[in-house]
Structures are given as C-alpha cells and as structure tokens.
Amino acid sequence: MLERYLKMISESCVYDIALETPLVSADRLSSRLGNTVWMKREDLQPVHSFKLRGAYNKLASLSAEDCRKGVIAASAGNHAQGVALAARNLGIKALIVMPVTTPSIKVASVKQLGARIKLSGDTYDEAYSVAAGIAETRGMAFVHPYDDPLVIAGQGTIALEILRAHQGDLHAIFVPVGGGGLIAGIAACVKALKPAVKVIGVEPDEASCMYEALKRGRRVKLKQVGIFADGVAVRQVGKEPFRIARHYVDEVIVVNTDEICAAIKDIFDDCRSVVEPAGALAIAGIKQYVGRTGISGAELAAINSGANINFDRLRHVSERAEIGEHREVLLAVSIPEEPGSFRRFCRALGKRGITEFNYRYADMQQAHVFAGVQLEGGKQERDLLVNKLRDAGYPVEDLTNSEIAKLHIRYMVGGRVAGLTDEVLYRFQFPERPGALLTFLTSMGKRWNISLFHYRNHGAEYGRVLVGIQVPRNSRKEFRGFLNDLGYLYWEETGSKAYHLFLGDATAGQG
Question: What is 412-502's CATH topology?
C-alpha cells in the first residue's frame, strides 16, 4: 500500500496549480512550549486551502470523455473552491452542489472561479446526495473531497514538502482531520519515507469521527456534528482514508472550541495570519500533546490547512481565545444584597483584571454576579481562586466549561422573572437561511408559549438559539415528538446551573 501511494504522490501533477508552501517556525509559541514548532502554511495557497492539491490531481487524471461531460462535487467551502479553480485551469465545466446554508462569501468565491452553483439541502450530507444523483443521471465525474486515492495522493504532496524542508529529526506532524483524505496522504508518505516520524491527527470534540473509528476499529457515523470548525464537520470518515489511518496514523487528539480559538490567536501572534477554525486544529493539538506528555526540545510540525473564515466569526474567536488559553475564568457568584457587599467581593478577587461583570438584583437577601476574571497562572490559579472565594463564604459556580454560559447567559443576565411555571430551556442550531424561525414557530403552533428567546450568529452556516418554552407536564411527551419531527439539532438546558441562577423562576424554592 505504501509503495503504491508513494509512487502516486511522487508523480502527482499538483504543481501545475498549487504552490510549494513554506514551512515556517512559530517562534513565540516555540518559546512558550519549550519545543520547536513549525507551521506548514497551506493557508497561502491560491484558494487559501490545501484542497486544490487533491482536486487538481483528480481532475488532471480524467479521460477526454469525462472532461467533455464535466465534473460535479458537493462542498460547503474549501473543496468547492479547489475543484472550481482546477476545472477552470483545465478547461472543464464544473457544477458544485452547496448547502443553502453556505455563507454567501463562499458561494461568491466559487462563482468567481467559474463554476456553476446549485444550492440544495441544509447540510453537506444532503448536498452530497443531490450531487451523487446528478452525477449518475448525467454521467458526470464526481470529485469526492476525501474518499478517492487520487485526491489522497494530491494531499500527500504536503508531506513530501515538509520532509524536504525539514532536515533534522522531526518528532511528529500534526494534521487536521475531517473526512480523512489529508491525514491519509500524509501518513502514507511519511511512513514510507521516515516511519519514525509520528503522524498525529487532530479533530474537534464536536466532530471526532476518526477518533471514534480508530477507537472502535470500524467506521462509525456520528449522530450529529458541531459546525464551529466547519471545514472538518464530517459525520463519517472515508473508507479509503480509514483503511490507511488504522495502519499508519499514530493517534488522534480531540480538542474543544476554546482550544481551537486559542490556537487561532497563537497563529496570528506568530505570523499575522488569521486561519479558519479547521486550519488551527493542528496547533491546538500540539499544545495539548505537549501539555499531556511533557515533551521538550522536540521538533513538531503543524499543517495550517486553510484560512477561509468569515469576518463575523472573529468576534466569537476573540471571545473564546482567552478561555482556551486558560487566561480567563467565568464565575457565577452569589453575594449578600447589602451595602458594601460588592466592594468586599471585588476585594476578594484581588488585583486580577475583570474581563466581564454582570450584576442583577435577585431578592432582598442576595444578588447573583456573572464575572469574567483574568488569570496569569492557568488552571492552577483558576482552582485557587474558586477555592479562595468559597473559603470566604461565597457560593461559587465555575462556568468556564459551560457552553450555555459562554454562548448565551453572559449576554442575558437579568432575565429572571417571578412565578414562571413549567418553563423548559433548549439550545438549538437553526439553519442560517430565511424561513428557519418561521418553520420553528409554525411547527410549534399555539400548543406552547415561548417565554424566552435569544439568538446569536457567529458567521457560520447555523445560528445559535436559546429558547424557553412553557410546557405543562401532561404535554411533555407531545413536546418531545415536536422536537424530533422538527429536524433541528437541539440540547435541553433546563437543568443548567447558569439557567437557574440568571434566567429561571425567581420564586423557585421559596416557601
């Protein structure tokens, strides 16, 4: 297998269109981690992503008859742009099926490259089904984003460049993982030429399909995936990539949204480039790996896989980066409702900087404070601060790892009401398109009353929505049926501490 792939990689014609991107040192990050960190700058490609390598390698291999009929692909972003540019350079007509939730900036980019666009479905899977059907009906060549040997070989050229550019002893190459095409190409090349070099995949915890597949020894389909790192939001790893990965990938690391945001900031600090969330996965993985293993003095390479990020999403990234770097803690603290209590609480925090402070009168006995506090000593200082406040008699909840607190509660403090009955709280992902809210309201009808509604958009394909609904207990079964029929991803948050402190019934628990 390795010899076959190494031959395909070596003979790939990607340089008709792709750049041999630089391998640059991340000096600031290297100093902090005590290891030498290298970044492979695939964000500098013509379409700001590695995807054009595999796309071009596939299209360049097509027969004259296939070229005459044209090619088709399904994608919400980087693969679409890679196929469109490759097709334009080769004089092939291209049709790209994109979800209707795809941000307009990505649709416009693909059109500018000369491809035709068909918007269909809310998700990649739905767009994929439509594209596969069209390919069969019209006899068009389907360009898969990752489950194709020629695509895998095209991506594998990145490994050749890394090994050529780095002459010393490389400990490991960290690779973002979605469907697996990139890491399959990297692993096949590296293990054929320098088997001692580790190949380590990195996935978001919201879409860890390769991690789960390797753990279980078979491909699995995730029930749902998060969309923050949309470039790797894949429910099931490809068949061919998994076949390669199970033999030649050393491990897969899973990172969370905060760690990804911190990595985006790290990359910006070192090279003034803003990568997309998927493009920062490898750096996030390196940081977690170093922290877990305690390795020092090693040479570590990360693939910055892409930089196609919507500007609107930078607000979300900046909000979460400090938490991901363990330089901020979010606390819910109850303080006495009496003169001087606020001053005493601030004194208990010491000279730490306050990043956020939300206060709301709760009752005559106590008030609830939502505070963001700067940290210098990471997780250890966070634990010390929480314990110090508790020792001082303050009831404290650490909300740093609470998604509902970070996405919604921090913007809604002060929403408590008295005497609210039968309220349940849910988080939803609404497709970011006209009619999504109307669909929700129409489906619900007049059966239940909406008692709270909060929406935030982070420039992604989906909006984040928090909804409070009054559902009497005798209709809970009917309500669960409504949720399942709706078709939107949802999570119940009724039991959340943050909800009960800042948004729930102000009279609950009072006799």
Answer: Biosynthetic Threonine Deaminase; domain 3 (3.40.1020)
Q: Please state, as a whole number, how many other Cβ atoms lie within 10 Å of the Cβ of residue 353.
A: 12
Q: What is the pLDDT of residue 155?
A: 98
3-state secondary structure 271-323: HCCCCCCHHHHHHHHHHHHHHHHCCCCCEEEEEECECCCCHHHHHHHHHHHHH
Strands 36-41 and 299-304: what pairing?
A: parallel
CB neighbours of residue 344 within 10 Å: 14
d(CA 456, CA 284): 25
Fold (topology level) of 326-401: Biosynthetic Threonine Deaminase; domain 3 (3.40.1020)
- List the beta bridge partners of residue 333: 369, 396
For the beta carbon of residue 221, count every other beta carbon within 10 angstroms: 12
Query: Is residue 511 predicted with pLDDT exceeding 50?
Result: no
Q: 377-402: per-residue pLDDT in tens?
A: 888 899 999 999 999 889 999 999 88
CATH code, 51-142: 3.40.50.1100
């982070």: which residue's tokens?
Answer: 458
Say which DSSP state 352 is in: P
Residue 441, token pair as written in the block? 């309201």
Average pLDDT, the chain: 89
For range 92-105, the mean pLDDT: 86
Strands (E), 138-256: 141-142, 172-176, 198-204, 251-255
Q: Which of the following is catalytic: 40, 51, 191, 265?
A: 51
State which CATH number among 3.60.15.10, 3.40.30.10, 3.10.20.30, 3.40.50.1100 fits the domain covering 2-49+149-320.
3.40.50.1100
Strand 116-119 and strand 198-204: the pairing is unpaired
Dihedral angle, C-alpha 49, 125, 204, 430, nearest 10 °: 110
- What's the CA gap between 172 and 157, in Å, rounded? 17
| Residue of 75, 109, 208, 305 with catalytic role | 305
Interatomic CA distance for residues 93 and 116, integer angstroms: 8
CA distance 328 to 376: 9
- Domain spans in the chain, listed from the N-terminal domain onward: 2-49+149-320, 51-142, 326-401, 412-502
Task: For residues 241 and 214, give the distance between their C-alpha atoms in angstroms, rounded to a whole number.
Answer: 11
Q: Per-residue pLDDT tens for 105-127?
A: 788 889 999 999 999 987 777 88
The encoded tokens of residue 409 equal 């509660």
Can 51-142 and 412-502 be said to share one CATH topology?
no
305 is an active site residue: yes
